[in-house]
Specification:
alpha/beta; five-stranded mixed beta sheet; 25 helices; 9 strands; globular; binds iron/sulfur cluster
């Protein structure tokens, strides 16, 4: 694709990068076939190619974002299916991230929209605020229909997604060390994140048990949110601040006792941490440290694939529908590792038809675009239920919450199944829903 940026525009490294990306697009349109919004809406402007044209036009003319551009960019899930399909290697993720930041800087959203976004950006990354907000949301759940009728569909979506009860807090706070329970084979940091410790602390607990059981020392050194949620809302300064906080915390560990890897159990966050090197490439103080962190970042399934896992329990016969989170399959190109891990330890793993299509979760998307998110969830759940699985496994808390809101089939994290099969307790979501309810005693978390 030809571009016509001026030399002055190209002096901005973000525009120079956008120019490089735009020039790789050959307009072939292959990406449209796998784009969830194009599949649902059939509008070229809701396809990757259409959005690329809109972004090009906006940036080349150095124009503030228009309501039309915002509508179509907001509808993009950042699922990155288009990047998997594109034969030309167009880095759509960096392009749309830049477009979202441009929108945030140049477009005045309607007041309710602005308030809602500010609220999400403030509450979601903060464990305490999120916990309090979810407690309040439980009381507001019966009024979800009323909010929808008043035109406040995002508020209604938030209430519907809020869990009916909140689990106990993730063990401890601040820097925590979990020594290995077997001869030491490595040392890793685990990102606890922001949403996961509040609504599903069992995921990180399971990951720590699996790792320590196999001789891996785990340190929790992070500072909560990795910045992913606000990054996808175009709030670049907040996202970069969060990234710098994490990098400082992990750099202290790397330069102290050393780290073999930085593990992430939420693949949406993992994609962002793996991109820190790019996001901070022009920051003289952080560029090298950010790149070092990104190179160490691994999804939990990616790391466990390199370990010889002991099998303590035979889950033969348990049918798992594996939902491949977009951030894992498209963002990190990890498609086979989680399935192979589950198969190796005895689960019967089934691929979900149309597995390349997003479930509609996508960070805050299911709250900000509830109608499209609902349609995508219904399609996803329909495809999953055809498989008649005993359980649904996914590697991303966002997908788990989104899918669980549309089905009675238990939804667990891949790490919870691996923990269970290698000697940990039965995942809570499974207890009482299968023939056997003989849950193993919880393995105490080493501190
Ligand atoms: S990221 Fe997903 S929703 Fe957005 S253009 Fe690409 S395929 Fe479509
Ligand atoms: S598949 Fe790639 S090259 Fe073709 S239109 Fe889409 S983004 Fe452009």
């Amino acid at each position: 694709m030809q571009t016509s940026f001026t030399l002055a525009q190209l002096a901005d490294p973000n525009i120079a990068e956008a120019d490089r990306i735009l020039r790789t697009c050959v307009h072939c349109g292959f990406c449209t076939a796998t784009c969830p919004t194009y599949v649902l809406l059939g509008d070229e402007l809701d396809s990757p190619r259409g959005r690329i044209y809109l972004i090009k036009d906006m940036l080349e003319h150095d124009r503030p974002a228009s309501a039309e551009v915002v509508k179509h960019i907001d509808r993009c899930l950042s699922c990155l299916a288009c990047m998997t399909t594109c034969p030309s290697g167009v880095h759509y993720m960096h392009l749309v991230d830049h477009a979202r930041a441009h929108i945030e800087n140049t477009y005045a959203r309607p007041r309710v929209d602005r308030l809602l976004r500010a609220l999400l950006a403030r509450v979601l990354p903060n464990n305490d605020l999120l916990r309090r907000a979810l407690a309040a949301a439980r009381l507001g759940k019966p009024f979800a229909g009323l909010f929808a009728a008043l035109g406040l569909k995002p508020v209604a979506a938030m209430l519907r997604l809020a869990p009916a009860r909140l689990p106990a807090k993730f063990a401890g706070s601040g820097r925590r060390l979990f020594p290995p329970c077997a001869p030491r084979r490595g040392r890793v940091a685990l990102l606890t994140g922001c949403v996961s410790p509040v609504i599903a602390p069992a995921i990180n607990a399971a990951a720590i048990r699996v790792l320590t059981r196999h001789g891996i020392e785990v340190v929790v050194a992070d500072e909560g949110c990795c910045g992913s949620l606000v990054h996808h809302m175009g709030r670049a300064p907040e996202a970069l601040s969060a990234a710098r906080r994490q990098i400082d915390a992990w750099s202290a560990e790397i330069e102290g006792e050393g780290l073999d890897a930085i593990l992430v159990t939420a693949s949406g966050c993992g994609t962002t941490v793996k991109d820190y090197g790019y996001l901070l490439r022009t920051d003289e103080t952080y560029a090298a440290k950010a790149l070092r962190v990104s190179r160490l970042a691994k999804d939990i399934s990616e790391y466990l694939s390199g370990l010889e896992l002991s099998s303590e329990r035979d889950p033969a016969g348990l049918v798992v529908a594996y939902h491949s989170a977009c951030s894992l399959q498209h963002g990190q190109k990890i498609a086979r590792a989680p399935k192979e891990l589950l198969c190796k330890i005895g689960f019967v793993v089934k691929d979900v038809p149309e597995g390349h299509l997003c479930c509609g979760s996508a960070g805050t998307y299911n709250m900000l675009q509830p109608e499209l998110a609902r349609r995508l969830r219904e399609r996803k759940v329909g495809n999953i239920e055809k498989l008649k699985p005993d359980v649904i496994a996914a590697g991303n808390i966002g997908c788990m919450t989104q899918i669980a809101a549309g089905t009675v089939i238990p939804v667990v994290h891949t790490a919870e199944l691996i923990d269970w099969a290698t000697g940990g307790p039965e995942p809570e979501a499974l207890a009482g829903k299968r023939g056997s309810t003989a849950a193993a005693a919880p393995v105490a978390l080493a501190k």
